[in-house]
Design goal:
The protein contains 3 helices and 9 strands. It is elongated. Strand 1 and strand 2 form a beta hairpin. By secondary structure, it is an alpha+beta fold. The structure holds copper (II) ion.
């Protein structure tokens, strides 16, 4: 199904749900005039204003893309497959290229923007990057049929672990790759 059809269905579904809420509100008993405490009303209006302003200020930045204005220093192609990640500086399109990339050691520059182009050869996976001290620093979905770009600047040298973050089968927890930043 094309994206626009899904979007239209989602929009129509939202309209139906909003209509149900409106109908429930219309058919419920209304409070007697003056029975709603002024403070409650002000809190409601305040919250509504906060959500409205926050949404207006942040929504235009979607889809969220880090370092959009910088060209990456290095592009790394990532292919996920149960249960390993293959990382390479060259595109990985065939099974043979995937197998060859599995054994490669990838080294990334410290303090420079790097772009990961992440896809999957089978099911959905998550591609999450963990710093040498075990903190998660960035993540993106690995989806069959799509290439998702993740730009990141590594500020800490050492060995990083890429861990699958989307349950994908029996050996999901062991689905990792390692690379070095220096
Ligand atoms: Cu997984």
């Amino acid at each position: 199904m094309p994206q626009s059809t899904i979007l239209l269905l989602f929009f129509l579904g939202s309209l139906v749900i909003a209509g149900v809420f409106w109908w429930v509100w219309r058919t419920s008993r209304q409070p007697a005039p003056g029975s709603v405490e002024p403070l409650r009303r002000w809190i409601f209006v305040g919250l509504l204003l906060f959500v409205g302003i926050f949404t207006a200020l942040t929504l235009w930045r979607m889809p969220y893309f880090l370092y959009a204005e910088e060209l990456p220093e290095r592009v790394i192609h990532v292919v996920s497959r149960q249960f390993a990640f293959a990382l390479s500086e060259r595109p990985i399109e065939t099974d043979a290229e995937y197998a060859a990339a599995l054994g490669q050691t990838v080294e990334l520059p410290l303090g420079k923007v790097v772009e990961f182009r992440v896809t999957s050869f089978d099911v959905n996976h998550g591609f999450a990057l963990y710093s040498p001290d075990g903190r998660i620093v960035a993540q993106v979905q690995a989806m069959p049929g799509y290439v998702n770009r993740l730009r990141w600047r590594f500020d800490q040298p050492g060995e990083y672990v890429a861990q699958c973050l989307e349950y994908c089968g029996a050996a999901h927890a062991n689905m990792q790759a390692r690379f070095v930043v220096r």
